[in-house]
Hints:
There is one protein chain. This protein has 220 residues and is an alpha/beta fold. It has helices at residues 3-18, 59-69, 116-120, 125-134, 145-156, 158-170, 174-195, and strands spanning 22-29, 32-40, 43-50, 72-77, 93-97, 101-106, 206-208, 217-219. The protein has an eight-stranded mixed sheet, with helices on both faces. Helix 4 (125-134) packs across helix 6 and helix 5 (145-156) crosses helix 6.
Amino acid sequence: xxxxxxxxxxxxxxxxxxxxxxxxxxxxxxxxxxxxxxxxxxxxxxxxxxxxxxxxxxxxxxxxxxxxxxxxxxxxxxxxxxxxxxxxxxxxxxxxxxxxxxxxxxxxxxxxxxxxxxxxxxxxxxxxxxxxxxxxxxxxxxxxxxxxxxxxxxxxxxxxxxxxxxxxxxxxxxxxxxxxxxxxxxxxxxxxxxxxxxxxxxxxxxxxxxxxxxxxxxxx
Length: 220
């Protein structure tokens, strides 16, 4: 199966399993680009897709990044990758997708290497400020992000901050990103006219809307 043939049934599965879920595609985490990240309350879940055309050449490096940024991780494959379990840790989940079914071969366990401070780095500045104010911290303007993360965790504890963080990511308003991008493009356009620079701003992270329910069966 091709990548595009795997994504749609995967999104159907996520909608059916989790109900309220925010899906982000092609998200940069560390040195890797995560195919799909699903955010539910209290958890960030990573999905690495290996289509029939893909190899395992980059998987070891991808696993390191997924493990640090995501609480749970899955490799999602077509039936051609029957030996995929040999290439992922035993705490990674395995999902097979074919023309009719999504089959959860193995559920994921929590990554032993996940780091909350790296997860918090996924927040926009206004989202981080929302959590600061919610937990009774001052704005801490000019303070390094790493110091803000430590203050938050020390004040409210990891479970509370993780719940706050995932709710912010689930409620993220991408129109703010679009407005910021338009502003950047206008600024760069005016600069390029003056200098002859033809470079353009690129948006690399985007949100996937909920997929429509199909007739595929979800097996577990």
